[in-house]
Utp8 beta-propeller domain-containing protein (Oleoguttula mirabilis), 926 residues
Amino acid sequence: MDAPYTIATLPRPLDSENGRIQASPVYTLRSSRKRKRHEIAVGIDGEGVNIYDVQSQNQVTSYALPPQTYLCCPPCSVYVKKDKVTGAQRQTYMVVRDGPTDVKRRLVCVTEGLDRWRQLDDQLATPAKKELKLHSGDVLALEVVAARSETAAPQVLVSYRNGDVACVSGDLSKLSWEHNVISVADESQKIDVEYASLVDAETAQKGLLASREDVTAQLDTAISGTTGADGRTLFCSIIRSDTHRSLQIHALRLQGSDAIQSQKPGMQLVMEYELPAGYKQSSEHASYELHPASGKLYQLLDGRLTVYDLIGTIPRVTTTLGSKASPIFSFARVSSSSLLAAFADKAEVYETRYGSVQSSAPLLSNQTMEVAGQKRKRIANDEPVNQFWHAISSFSELGLVVGLAGNEVSALQLTENLRGTKRAKSGGTLLIDVLAKDVVDIKSKESHNAEKNEKRAKKLEEWKAEVDSAVDDHRVSELETLTARALHLKSVSVEPRRQEYDSNELVLHNGEAGHGHTPEVTMESFDTARIDRHKAIYILSKCFSMRSENADPAAGTNRLTTTIGSKNVYKWLTLAGFLTKPYVQQGIALGYPMSGTVAKVQPGDIMTALSSFDNFQIVHDILAPPVHWELPEVVQVLKLLVQSFETPFDGTAAQKALTAPATSTNGDVPMLNGDADSEVESELLATEKDLDRAVSALSTGLEVRSETLRLVLRRLHAFPQRVVTKTMRAMMKHEELIFFMKILRIELLAGGWTSRYVDVGNADIAAVDAMDGVEDTIGPIDQAIGTISDLMNCAIDAVGTSGWLVGQSGDAYGTEELIDALKSEVSASLEGLFEADTVNTFLDDLQRYDFSVQKTEGSSERRKRKNEVEVEIDLSVADAMLPMGCRAEAAGVKDRSTKDGKKSKHVFEKERRGRVGAYSVDRIRI
């Protein structure tokens, strides 16, 4: 979009205080259709009405007015094509008054013939001027109703702010009818009509009334004498009351041919919408534009532009533009999906679906747009008529938006993609077209947020001072409270347990800190959208520090260490997602702002620092939740666990150093190297350190480290094996990898994967029976063999071919024995897996066979129960015996036949037995 350029320079109104300049577009009336022309009509109080062609930038015509004449509303000019004799005419209507305080209103019509070359004489025809007196009142708008036929004359509607509507014939010969759109129920309130326009019913059915079949069905009954949608015109008005604003749609009934229809009211209400209130209910006057084809209503009120979607049963707000700091002064609809908004110093084209800025152009000030040479002299200190650029209308075919700036008619040229023409894409605005095009107003934002940013910075400094004080004075409870509030921890009121608790533990009761049992905190307990990242990084700067391992910090390597004694702070930072390498690096840099170079946090440093906090207890707590950890951190935990499990081979070195200190021989006399007392003291300190480490390991127990190892194995199994192998090779030594293999071998043995099912003895069965009903929370699961096998492959590949060829030094078993042991254990595990699969197959077959037997027996039992007749007879065994060849009497069966009409088997068997005589018992004598 280019900068605005001037189309024409207008004369100033004679009355610099009360005079105004008003403009409106020019339309063409053709067979009940209204089309916008590339012209605008500009009315100047005390001067006249000028019509300009915006395409050629020429003045088409002008009509002078007396100096005391003031326009009550923008002029209305139409281009009417009549018969061949009369030709085309331009009819310009205006409502005027004499003086700024005059209450009388007059409707003036200036008719000008455009086919001047058909005149017999060479003199130009003088425009015809007619007037009609109107009743007093503030006139809102003038609208020309298109004629339904070429022979009929157009009619003019005069809308008043008090709700009156007057219909006048096009030649101002008579007043057709008058109507008031305000109902009797609303007369008690203060009513003001803010907008009035005419809408074609056929166009409204495509958008505004698309889903209101009930309203379109009423139009035929409301307006009798019209055929089809071409003869129907709707009158839309927006009425403001003390409580709300509403859109009313009336059906116009133009004057009919018979006397009965002429006596009916000229308007009938068919529908009324109550517009939803915007950001607040305002009593200021608003400006509107209704586009019936798309069903959208544009409202400009108090500097805010609101777009309403009227397609549906209830209007809804789709877009709201502008603000108190950056108000909108005027607007113009460009297309169905875009509009132009004019601010104080710029004009922007917005996309109404997403509210994005499609284009922007600066607006020149009134002083810059002044023309040096004026036709009439004016006082130098006169203020311009319009302080800001006021949009008149947009012409999509030309890509122009015309407006008024002072006494200048200027235009903004739009590009092809902003015009909304048929050549543009018709699929609507895509999301890719509005990305990174949000509303940006740097000046207003800076001025509006300067004070807010200053207050926010002051609060942040006060919060930092509180954190520094809590860390320096070792007030753990206060530090945890500050951290919980900074991370927006959703506290849950938990009753403290009746047991002794550590003074460092924190309980939150409705947001307050207290001592007791710490409530369970999960990832859902944090409101991550509201967490201030600066506060979280500042807390990290207090939680970690870089220290040198050597005496000389410049020559030694830096090591990440923990600096506070609160376990909850580390857990909360982990659950909130801030205990990661990038955030810790930012915290370290924030803790040393004056240093030139800050040591980088290496992979695995975070877990190394936390493992020395409380012997893997906090490491277990932060690995248990479903929080993502990078692979180097997990491998580092595995390395530290292996080091804690592994028993050094030179464990007696400290004892040997005490009994046999290092000496150096000078000739025949043994002499001590250095001071004996200092060497003995250092060895004692080393021994005490090892003793403390052993005591700490025993006090902590293997349970925490074993459970931590299980968590590590599960997390390692979730990563790709290739990446795990590469990371293990880079971070772990061969001895540590081989010890890790031993741990996996122990897991194989503990899970019973190397034992055969047929080798289970009576003692094992008794042990299983004794454990029946006891829940084994740490027992092996079926998926464990997959985890063990994958990690075993990773460890073997991490050692590499060269590592296996060189072998391991100092191992009692040796490389060959280790490989043979792995081979035998893996073979035994495979045999167990094959046996398990075979047993599973057998069990499946047995289960299927059992199911089929139960199904067969069940069906036979049902048939027996259905056919048998149970008779209880108490007989002895001898009486129940039958002689040889005797049969029992069959149960009685009712006569019945099959579906085909044949005898059933039971009937046939009964008849066959009836043919045989009764059985007789003959005694055989020998």
The longest strand covers residues 33-44. The chain has a mean pLDDT of 75. Residues 814-867 form the longest helix (54 residues). The CA atoms of residues 622 and 722 lie 25 Å apart.
